[in-house]
Specification:
about 475 residues, alpha+beta, Arc Repressor Mutant, subunit A, eight-stranded mixed β-sheet, three-stranded antiparallel β-sheet, 15 helices, 15 strands, about 20% strand
Length: about 475
């Protein structure tokens, strides 16, 4: 039997506020455990929450960015459950009246097609703490770090509109692009700033009835999402084809061990005993506030992609890569502005720089090679001071902190030889000391001659220690060989 996969995502986005959603405690990452959780975050007796206005504005900005309905009246509720990293015994969240209603997000697929993924809603809520099961803890014990408790989140809930891994990852990446572009999230998935819960079910191809779904929680990378979906689809199909049934449950996937396992049976809303939070008034948003936030929205990824195509004459594909992340887009535009060669700026940003960053597990904001340094090197390629091959040596030296392009070219003697008279002498010398190669070239047919040019080029580049301008050398070599025919 052929099976169809059905996928929906619940995406937790940590909002980039300086303080928590209901208290003045800091949200900065990396502090010592349990140093940034105040009495309000823990709902200690005698404390009352006070809503962070900036968190509300950030949620509205997301809604506006996806053309969603904005809840002019939204309500906070208590979601009751008991877990070590939730000492309050409940999470303050939204259910019946969320801040963001229905919207949609367009994704672009590898074949160039586009698809619209519907957003059911997005709601504001507080994050829980974090259970820790490793480090200096005694064997068999766990610790709890409550620094994250109370950090403001929006949870973005999609409809089950995705049918394969490619669509799910494209949707996740598009959300990342949107929230980072409008500045409401730093997008650092390794720090938990975006986490994905993946709902997966399968059904016979052609069926319109949804199968029983499972939810795999807390995936913090696209790679882990791909792996978790692939394993879960295979597990469900094997289970059904062997005569079993899929249970609605919550699952965990360990990206290190590549193991997926059941965590608990999937709860329904009534299991959480939701009720309106008695400590928080309804949130009322005026039309003026919505319009003010709409006017203040930064450039969105789709608009930026279209501008890159128009302004820099890039392909839609290249523009899509460079515009998907606000920091990458800013870096590219800075390189292009300083080097005046946008296509070369795009190639180096997407190519050598991106590869080096990935290898070092760094973001573009952490790049040892700044936009100004990269632009300076591109200018030296453009004026034929260095070849593309030499540029890779220069880039590596800049990455290691050895200076700017001009300093490195001078120190390493990498300046390209472009003097025509000097190159003509190099070519003549190589032809003179290789008479057998010249005779073989003359005796060959036209197709073989093209292949034999490489031998001459290799000799000439060796003689120049790689510093001869290859384009000029090729022209001079062809001219001299043709004169011998």
């Amino acid at each position: 039997m052929n099976w169809e996969t059905v996928i929906g995502l619940e995406v937790h986005v940590q909002l980039a506020t300086k303080t928590k959603i209901f208290s003045a405690a800091s949200t900065s990452f990396g502090a010592e455990p349990n140093t940034q959780a105040c009495a309000i975050d823990l709902a200690m007796p005698g404390t009352l929450p006070a809503l962070n206005e900036q968190a509300v504005h950030y949620a509205i900005m997301f809604g506006l960015a996806i053309n969603a309905e904005i809840g002019k009246i939204s309500i906070f509720e208590r979601k009751n459950y008991f877990y070590p990293d939730l000492p309050k015994g409940y999470q303050t969240t939204q259910l019946e009246k969320p801040i963001v209603g229905r919207g949609e997000v367009a994704i672009q697929l590898a074949d160039g097609s586009t698809k619209s993924i519907r957003i059911h809603h997005a709601h504001l809520e507080e994050d829980a703490g974090k259970s820790i099961h490793e480090g200096d803890l005694p064997h068999g014990s766990s610790g709890v770090d409550l620094n994250r408790a109370g950090t403001p989140l929006i949870e973005i809930v999609s409809e089950p509109d995705m049918r394969n891994i490619e669509e799910a990852v494209a949707f996740a990446k598009k959300l990342h692009s949107i929230v980072t572009s409008i500045g409401i999230c730093d997008g650092k998935m390794s720090q938990g700033s975006m986490r994905f819960d993946v709902n997966v079910s399968v059904r016979p191809m052609g069926s319109t009835t949804l199968g029983t779904r499972t939810e795999t929680k807390n995936l913090n990378s696209y790679k882990f999402m791909e792996e978790a979906i692939e394993k879960e689809v295979e597990r469900q199909i094997d289970l059904i084809e062997d005569g079993g049934t899929v249970k609605q449950e919550t699952r965990l996937y360990n990206g290190e061990t590549k193991v997926s396992k059941a965590m608990r049976s999937k709860e329904e809303a009534n299991d959480y005993r939701y009720f309106p939070c008695p400590d928080l008034l309804p949130v009322i948003v005026s039309d003026d506030t919505i319009e003010k936030l709409r006017r203040a929205l930064p450039e969105l990824p789709d608009a930026r992609q279209a501008r890159f195509v128009e302004q820099y004459a890039l392909s839609k594909y290249d523009a899509g890569i460079l515009s998907s992340d606000a920091n990458t887009a800013n870096f590219f535009e800075s390189v292009a502005a300083n080097a005046s060669h946008p296509k070369m700026a795009a190639n180096w940003t997407m190519g050598e720089l991106s590869a080096a960053l990935n290898h070092a597990d760094l973001s573009i904001t952490e790049s040892p090679v700044s936009a100004e340094l990269l632009a300076g090197m591109i200018l030296r390629i453009a004026d034929n001071s260095i070849s593309g091959k030499m540029a890779k040596q220069v880039f590596e030296a800049m990455w290691q902190g050895e200076g700017n392009a001009d300093e490195i070219i001078e120190a390493k003697g990498l300046k390209q030889v472009s003097d025509n008279a000097a190159l003509e002498k190099m070519v003549s010398d190589v032809l003179e000391v290789n008479p057998a190669m010249v005779e073989d070239f003359i005796a060959s047919d036209e197709n073989k001659r093209k292949k034999k040019l490489g031998g001459f080029m290799g000799q000439i580049m060796k003689a120049s220690r790689g510093q001869a301008n290859p384009q000029q050398v090729n022209q001079i070599l062809l001219q001299k060989l043709n004169e011998l025919l």
